[in-house]
Structure formats: C-alpha cells, structure tokens
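Subject — a protein and its fold
Fields — amino acid sequence, structure tokens
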Amino acid sequence: QVQLVESGGGLVQAGGSLRLSCVASGQTISNSAMAWFRQAPGKGREFVGGISWSGGSNVYLDSVKGRFTISRDNAKNTVYLQMNSLKAEDTAVYYCAARRRLIATISASSDQYAYWGQGTQVTVSS
C-alpha cells in the first residue's frame, strides 16, 4: 500500500506561484507513474499532468502548459507540482495520484490510479 500526503496549497493572488509536494510512504513510488489531478467546486476531477517513473516524460493539460511543471525526486519518494502565473480558474483541490507498482506510463484517466492523497486546497484570488 502507498500513502500519499500533499502539502503546499494555500491562497495566492492571480499571477503568483505555489509549489505543491506529494510525499509517499509505505512503498516506493520510484517505479510508478505519478499524476496531479484537480477538482473545482461543482466540477469533476480533472487531469492536470503526469510524470513517468524516471521523470523523463511529462504530459500536461493544455491550459496549464508553460505554467505548471511536474518533477519528482525518487530518492525522497516525492513528487512536486510547480505552479506559476496562477489564474482564478486554477482554484481547486489538488490531488496527487500514483499508479500501481511497475506501471510506468502516464494516464490522464483517474481510474488508472490506485493511490490517492487527501488533497490540498489552492485558491487563486483575482
């Protein structure tokens, strides 16, 4: 079993930056693809981006390309989401997700991820 804990959310003005962290415990995530999803009030869960097990490949939602960057430090069992140039429409609860062990490819589908964090709130004021 993998436990994921996100941190780093908060309130920021439009144009500002935040860095979210997702720390895994219970099992290494070094051989699993990881992703960030978000859910705004009244909306479904949305794929923000993902990173392959090695960190050599990333996929992003079109609306965050060039503003958000996902990275990972497998030695620390941690994945990051750097968010720059934040907009009001980025306001949501952000979730970290992990695929099962040895599944190294990124998927944009939430049902492909076996482990989820509890989420961290990001609020962008305009």
User: Anything to note?
Assistant: The chain is about 0% helix and 50% strand. Residues 47 and 108 are 6 Å apart (CA to CA). The chain has a mean pLDDT of 96.
